[in-house]
Write a structure and sequence with these properties.
By secondary structure, the chain is of the alpha+beta class. Among the domains are: 35 residues; 177 residues, endopeptidase domain like (from Nostoc punctiforme) (endopeptidase fold (from Nostoc punctiforme), Alpha-Beta Complex). It is 28% helix and 20% strand. The strands form four sheets. Strands 7-12-8-9-10-11 form a six-stranded antiparallel β-sheet. Strands 1-2 form a two-stranded antiparallel sheet. The protein has a two-stranded antiparallel sheet with strand order 3-4. β1 and β2 form a beta hairpin. It is rod-shaped. This is C40 family peptidase. It comes from Curtobacterium citreum.
Length: 321
């Protein structure tokens, strides 16, 4: 029976259980016999009043809707806007890249490339720029003069007149030799060059020939392994100068130094060799503290002061020359 159904009325057709049955009286005949309700359980329909009776709830029905919460993004900065958590654009892009297969592959490739290039970068960073072989190091450079300052001391003297004094025992002759250009560096003046060249050429003999031959290459560019006016290096200059007096030399500084005899500076004469102790450079001694040389790439054959780097003098000419 429903919760709000009305109780059914008492059945007056059923005799009371408390009244004992003693005898059955015969029913009086009636024109129309009445149909009795079945004994036992009441009808499921019940009275009409019970079927139409209900109670309305005073409050409306409340509907609850369940929503799934999104999974939080790890290590993503959030900004509070009006009480709600909002992911920044950078965090969203970072989260998308973290799950993007292409980004993962690119990151892996970049990591592998960094691992492979690291040794090469380390080796390259440890390399130093060395001066080429057979290159000169002037005195001022060894004392701390920079390349820019050295370039400012480079001068070219034009039409230099060099007096050459010769004597045959009876008469003395002075001849003026004109040089179109003389390349002077590191403070060498035109007067110093004139004096040294005049003394070297006036001595005559093989020494004068060696110096005069080397002066023909004045102003020619330095070329590694060269021995001509198109380009010449330091050992090439000494080789062609000594070839003029019939002394062949190998185009290599250590071999030229090995073929010569080391002499003290006090005995050095014009035409002798001035060799670095490490045998990396060689020049021709002009006397009076000047050297004729082919320096290094980018420069030309010039006249410089005596080297401040460790050096020694070597002689190739026979004794008495």
């Amino acid at each position: 029976m429903g919760r709000h159904a009305l109780p059914a009325a008492a059945d007056d057709r059923q005799p009371s259980r408390a009244t004992p049955r003693t005898a059955v009286e015969p029913a009086s005949p009636s024109p129309e016999p009445q149909q009795l309700r079945p004994r036992g359980r009441r009808s499921a329909l019940g009275p009409a009043a019970a079927r139409a009776t209900f109670v309305e709830h005073p409050k409306p029905t409340r509907t609850v809707r369940m929503q799934s919460r999104p999974a939080p993004v790890a290590a993503a900065p959030v900004a509070s806007v009006a009480g709600a958590a909002v992911l920044s654009r950078t965090a969203v892009l970072r989260a998308e890249r973290a799950v993007d297969p292409r980004h993962i592959r690119r990151a892996a490739n970049a990591k592998r490339a960094a691992i492979l290039l690291a040794p090469a970068i380390a080796v390259t960073s440890s390399l130093t720029l060395a001066v080429p072989a057979n290159a000169a190091t002037p005195a001022e450079t060894q004392q701390g003069t920079t390349t820019a300052q050295a370039a400012q001391t480079f001068t070219v003297a034009h039409d230099v007149k060099v007096p050459v004094v010769t004597t045959d025992g009876m008469t003395t002759t002075t001849t003026v030799v004109s040089y179109p250009t003389l390349d002077l560096r590191f403070g060498v003046t035109t007067a110093q060059a004139q004096s040294a060249l005049s003394a070297a050429l006036s001595a005559g003999g093989d020494r004068a020939t060696i110096v005069e031959t080397a002066l023909q290459y004045m102003g020619d560019p330095y070329v590694e392994g060269g021995a001509s006016h198109e380009g010449i290096d330091c050992s090439g200059l000494t080789m062609v100068a000594y070839a003029a007096v019939g002394i062949p030399l190998v185009h290599y500084v250590p071999t030229q130094d090995a073929a010569a005899t080391t002499i003290p500076e006090s005995e050095a004469l014009p035409g002798d060799l001035v060799v670095y102790d490490d045998e990396d450079h060689v020049g021709l001694y002009l006397g009076q503290g000047l050297v004729l040389q082919a320096p290094h790439p980018g420069e030309v054959v010039d006249i410089v002061p005596m080297y401040s780097a460790a050096h020694h003098f070597a002689r190739l000419l026979p004794a008495g020359s």
